[in-house]
Structure formats: C-alpha cells, structure tokens
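Subject: Sanity check before I submit

Could someone independently write out the structure tokens for this chain? I want to compare against mine line by line before I put it in a report. The sequence has 229 residues.
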Amino acid sequence: MNKNKTKNRILVGLLLLVIIILVLKLLRYPVPFVTKYEAKKYLSEYFGRDDIKIKYDIKNNKYYIKKTGDGIKYNFDDKTIFDEGISRKVNIKANMDFDNMNFTLDNNISLPRSIHMYTSFSVDDYNLQKNKLYLLDIREAQEVDKEIVNDRIADIGIEIINNLGDDYNITDLQFIYENLNGMYEVVINSGNSFHSLTRKDILDNIRSMKETELSEEYLKWRESVHQYN
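---
Independent answer below. Compare away.
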C-alpha cells in the first residue's frame, strides 16, 4: 500500500512538473535549470570564460552576466546575444548612414534628427545579426488620403531601410508616421526569425492611432501647420 502511495505521489509530482514547464513555455518564461544552463553555456562561449555568474532579468525576460551588468545578455526567446558595446557602435554607424542617405520621396516629408538601432546576433553564428530599427516622428506636412496612406507609409519605411545599406539585417521595426489626418504606427517583432523586413511586412502591420492616442506634440505640430497654411 505504501509503495503504491509513493508511486502515485511521484507520478503526480512528475505531472505537475510537466504542467508547470508547459505553462512557463506558453507564457514565454524561462524553464528553471534548463534555460539557465542554456544561457550560461552560450554566454560562457561568447565571453570566453567558464566561471561567469549569470542572473535572470525578469523585466526584460533575459539572462545577463553579472560582472558586466546588463551589458551582455542572452535572450532565450530567439537564441540571440546582445552586447551593449557592439550595439552602440552599430547604432552610431547607422546614424551616420542615415545622415548621408539620399531620400527621394516628397519634400513635404521631414525625417527625425536621429534613429535608433538595437542589435543582437545568433548564438550559432555571431555574423548573423538582427537589427531592430526605431523610426519615430516621420512627418508629412499635408493631408494624405486614407486610400493611399498605407502605401505611402510602406514606401517611406522601405526606402529608409534600403538606403541604410547592406551592413544591416533589419528584422524588427517601430515606426511612427504622421500627416495632417492623423498618426500611424508600425510595430514588427520578428520573434526567432532572422528574415529581413519587406515592404509587405510593413503594409501588413500598419495601425491607425485613435484620437485619444495622439500625442500633444503631434497636435501642436498639426495646429501650427494649419495656421501657417
């Protein structure tokens, strides 16, 4: 009888463990021991040392090397490493390329003074990178018909991406576009894909922002343009 009870308890315990693991995976949280071992393996290989200590950053869902603070991280969702020093250098270069690029669309379109690019790379191939591009406050000082505005946004986004050059693999995007009719947002998170963004990707992810979401800065800009005209 006692043997049966012990066996049943073991089976119940294993079942609960499986359920917990499945729930954690569903919620995209790391599975204890498994993901920590995985993170330490990849970060040790990258850092070139086996005696590193790692910590889990619950806010950003990443592991990082304690010695470097949040400078070097492992993201188990897409199996990439983020190195703050490398990402900073790539961002500086991207802004230089942005400043020097030839933009051929309408003169009514004003670009932000700078962009931001967040870079990570595959644990299996450090040359395979993912670049997340932040394009905020691109403004067009005219009304654009709803029938063509999505094509307009896609054209602007893909031209900027293409003109930045071949040194980047832009897989993720946050893009804010404004004209006199409203604000639009494009948010693309590639997950574990290293697929470069296309015009269709941008078209499929355009969202018109509600009146309650319009920023005070945008409303002031729109009012000033109307007054000027």
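---
OP: Matches mine. For the report I'm noting this point. Residues 2-26 form the longest helix (25 residues).
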